[in-house]
Model the fold of this input.
Amino acid sequence: MDKNTVNANFINFINELKSRNIVNSDKSFCDSIGVLPQSLGDIKGNRRSVTIEMIQNTCLKYNVSSDFFLNTQNNYDAYFDAYFDAYLEPKSIQNDTKKGDKSSKGSIPLIPIEAMAGQGAGEFSALEQDLQYYNIPELSRADFVIKVSGSSMYPKYSSGDILACIYVKDASFIQYGKVYVMDTGQGAVVKRLFQSTKPNHYLCHSDNEAYKPFDISQDSVRALALVIGVIRLE
Done:
């Protein structure tokens, strides 16, 4: 893949974000992925190439596959349109969402940690009657929220904290050192992930030093979500 094509795809993505009011400007996009606006200016001027780190950070921030930028899918235009229609359509935040009202736009389901049932489907799920829905404008990009149970991630997270999460659709990009929620055969696990010395495993760390790190097979993780925010009740 030549750098001009990757640069063009990257710029097209940013322009689409701006046109849909997902970001307000080039600067706000750069701030969201941790790069200087000058770097984006150099990319637009074809004075430098988009880096792998930029692509990784964008994939994590906006929950998009690297295929989007590398143009490895068969029909780029169709992929482009489908992505924005499915995942980045701006949500109208409702103030009167009722419990269980899944049809209300902008609402985020609270998935009870004991009700998780991934069934290998690649997403966290629960019975409809188990769900409550919340409107959180600052975290409207979240796919779901979940309550922390236990003390293994203390002091970062305490039991009862509500974590906002987005599904990881491309497991080839894992930001090591970040906190993830995993749906496993033994239930939901909230851990900080690192690269394991074992092939096809994640190294799971707790922030509470009383809990020892452990490896988990990637095959045993039925669904994976990145924690993007927390709500703490005093």
